[in-house]
Design brief:
With 349 residues, the protein is of the alpha/beta class. It folds into 2 domains: 2-145, Rossmann fold; 201-345, Alpha-Beta Horseshoe (Leucine-rich repeat, LRR (right-handed beta-alpha superhelix)), CATH 3.80.10.10. Helix content is 32%, strand content 14%. The chain contains 11 helices and 11 strands. It has helices spanning 2-19, 32-40, 43-47, 63-75, 89-93, 145-159, 161-166, 168-181, 185-196, 314-325, 342-345; strands at residues 24-28, 52-56, 99-103, 122-127, 141-144, 203-205, 226-228, 250-253, 273-278, 303-308, 334-336. The strands form 2 sheets. Strands 6-7-8-9-10-11 form a 6-stranded parallel sheet, with no helix packed on it. Strands 2-3-4-1-5 form a 5-stranded parallel sheet, sandwiched between helices. Helix 10 (314-325) links the parallel strand 10 and strand 11 (334-336). It is elongated, with a radius of gyration of 30 Å. It comes from Camellia lanceoleosa. This is Disease resistance protein.
Length: 349
């Protein structure tokens, strides 16, 4: 969950940048370069028109080399080497409120105290865990990447790693909710207790999300009674594991990208309300969208809505079989279908 730590780190640095209090910050740990890359594109920097400068420092560089690299980024061309011996040269060239990224991850253990960096800007120093950065630069704040992993580790410990990592749905929800907790550890512990009861979940609301598929681990939610996927336009198919959700009563697939239903849909024997759209299907998609006799197995069905593309000529053939099957749905009270002709309507008995 490195992305979670990066996102949290960026929020902390952005806040420091916005408040203007801690102007020299060290970030240490793994993948700090990803944080630096993301920070350069943050709204806070773009909105204030900051002059972003980046310099890599290794033990082979002198303070003169570093000054030269910074100035050349500002000027766009090389200056005479001798001017970089002047410890005050950066005060002359650096614009007000600059943003300077100093990458010391390549064993950059050189003394940066003598660089002469003015206090009007914002300095971010990237290092590894082993580097003693206080020996090379005075800093206002130190941010450890592993500290930003703590909320996620705390959640996994309390929920159980097996549950979080084997269910992508639970994992996506957990990541989003941990972000919303903004580092509040008590809130995360309470959240963990709630997620631990996910197998007992009765209602799952994912309407109008960008979800593209349902994982096989959906089968863990055996207590699910209501599942709303309405408006998930990117969702095009359902996994066969959905068939184990024998307690599901309400299933909404309207305005999705679903192209067909798996045979296992007939195993949802507790279903009372089923809504689905097949508007993305065309005449070139020749397979049956609803498996033969699948709906006739849904003996508890009271409400059924099927929306199709009016230009799909194959539907006219399929709907005749479907209407014949629905004569066995004795509890059906509400039916919404597209019927292209009056003759098809007469099949309703």
């Amino acid at each position: 969950m490195l992305e979670l730590a990066i996102d949290s780190t960026i929020r902390q640095v952005s806040k420091c940048f916005y408040d203007g209090l801690d102007r020299k910050i060290r970030i240490l740990g793994s993948r700090v370069e990803k944080v630096a890359k993301a920070l350069k594109d943050t709204w806070e920097i773009k909105a204030k028109g900051k002059h972003v400068l980046c310099v890599s420092v290794s033990r082979h560089h002198s303070t003169k080399d570093v000054r030269q690299s910074i100035v050349e980024q500002i000027r766009g061309y090389k200056e005479a080497d001798k001017i970089f011996n002047n410890p005050n040269i950066l005060r002359c060239y650096l614009p007000r409120d600059f943003f300077l990224l100093v990458d010391c991850t390549d064993d950059g253990q050189i003394d940066l105290h003598d660089l002469g960096i003015p206090n009007c800007g914002f300095v971010l120093v990237l290092t590894t865990r082993s580097q003693k950065v206080y020996e090379i630069m005075n800093l206002d704040l130190e941010i450890r990447m592993e500290d930003h992993m703590l909320p996620w580790e705390l959640l996994c410990t309390n929920v159980g790693p097996s549950l979080v990592h084997t269910s992508s749905i639970i994992q996506q929800m957990a990541i989003h909710l941990v972000k919303e907790c903004h580092g509040n550890l008590l809130a995360i512990i309470l959240l963990a207790r709630a997620l631990k009861g996910m197998p007992l979940l009765r209602v799952l609301e994912l309407s109008s999300t960008s979800i593209k598929s349902l994982p096989p681990s959906i089968s863990r939610l055996r207590s699910l009674q209501k599942f709303n996927l309405r408006g998930c336009a990117l969702l095009m198919e359902l996994p066969p594991q959905l068939g184990v959700l024998g307690n599901l009563e309400i299933f909404d697939l309207e305005r999705t990208g679903i192209m067909y239903l798996p045979e296992e849909i007939g195993e949802l024997i507790s279903l009372t309300c089923f809504k689905v759209s097949f508007c993305g299907r065309t005449n070139y998609y020749m397979d049956l969208i609803i498996p033969t006799k699948a709906l006739s197995k849904l003996s508890e069905l009271e409400e059924l809505s099927i929306d199709v593309n009016p230009d799909d000529e194959c539907w006219d053939v399929e709907v005749k079989t479907l209407l014949n099957e629905l004569t066995k749905a004795l509890k059906l009270k509400f039916l919404e279908l597209y019927l292209s002709t009056v003759e098809i309507l007469q099949l309703l008995r």
